[in-house]
């Protein structure tokens, strides 16, 4: 048992030494590292991908990343095999995620009509009239609060400071003001009759 532990430690030391050499752009060390680890990294990638379709591409990308970042390896932080397998596993996960993303065909994308040159059909004047009439039913301070919050874009914190109350109170006032407008809105026949059918 002790002999096996020693040989494992020797193997990890060898991998760590090879990674340090690869960090200094030693191609012979990189070749030896590849020979010693390719089966383990292939199995790591296969455990994530479950199919053989992209394994070689992911493995190649993993070794490219290992070559580029070997100088960052620190044997005090992680074992060399853990570090190598993490790189391979993360690339495999990225590959799986990328395959799950929906891709639209170019023809489908080209069939979407361009926005009209005329602009939108929204009646801003009518919306302003409806909003003004709905807000007129509120007390003056609530009207001011709604205008500052929704038209001026003030934060709840800024409103709390300006009105001299806690943020929770501002949120409650805003919610109640909006509920009041919503509950009174259907009763406003003058507005309802001016809406297009």
Would you give an account of this structure?
With 197 residues, the chain is mainly alpha-helical. The protein has two domains: 7-100, Orthogonal Bundle (Rna Polymerase Sigma Factor, Chain: A); 124-194, Arc Repressor Mutant, subunit A (Orthogonal Bundle). The chain has ten helices and no strands. The chain has helices at residues 2-23, 27-49, 55-69, 80-100, 106-110, 124-135, 140-151, 156-163, 167-184, 189-194. The longest helix is centred in the first third of the chain and has 23 residues, at 27-49. The protein is elongated. The termini are far apart. The model is unreliable at 189-197 (pLDDT under 50).
Q: Layout of helices and strands, plus pairs?
A:
Layout: H1 2-23, H2 27-49, H3 55-69, H4 80-100, H5 106-110, H6 124-135, H7 140-151, H8 156-163, H9 167-184, H10 189-194
The domain tally reads 2
What is the correct CATH architecture of the largest domain?
Orthogonal Bundle
Tally of helical segments: 10
Kindly name the structural category.
mainly alpha
Output the radius of gyration.
Answer: 32 Å
CATH topology of the largest domain: Rna Polymerase Sigma Factor, Chain: A
- Care to count the β-strands? 0
Name the overall outline. elongated
Main sheet, how many strands, which sense, barrel?
none
The fourth-level CATH homologous superfamily of the largest domain is: RNA polymerase sigma factor, region 2, helix turn helix motif
What's the CATH C level of the largest domain? Mainly Alpha
Q: Spans with pLDDT under 50 lasting ≥5 residues? A: 189-197
% residues in beta strands: under 5%
């Amino acid at each position: 048992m002790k002999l096996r532990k020693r040989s494992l430690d020797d193997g990890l030391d060898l991998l760590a030494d090879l990674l340090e050499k690869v960090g200094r752009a030693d191609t012979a060390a990189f070749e030896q590292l590849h020979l010693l680890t390719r089966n383990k990294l292939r199995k790591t990638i296969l455990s994530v991908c479950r199919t053989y379709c992209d394994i070689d591409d992911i493995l190649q990308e993993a070794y490219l990343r290992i070559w580029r970042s070997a100088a960052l390896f620190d044997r005090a932080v992680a074992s060399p095999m853990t570090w190598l397998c993490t790189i391979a596993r993360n690339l495999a996960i990225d590959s799986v995620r990328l395959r799950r993303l929906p891709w639209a065909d170019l023809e489908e994308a080209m069939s979407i009509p361009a926005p009209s040159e005329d602009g939108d059909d929204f009646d801003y004047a009518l919306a302003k009239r409806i909003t003004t009439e709905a807000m007129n039913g509120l007390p003056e301070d609530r009207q001011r609060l709604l205008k500052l919050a929704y038209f001026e874009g003030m934060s709840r914190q800024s409103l709390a400071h300006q009105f001299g109350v806690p943020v929770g109170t501002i949120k409650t006032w805003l919610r109640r003001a909006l509920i009041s407008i919503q509950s009174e809105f259907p009763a406003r026949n003058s507005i309802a009759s001016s809406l297009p059918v």
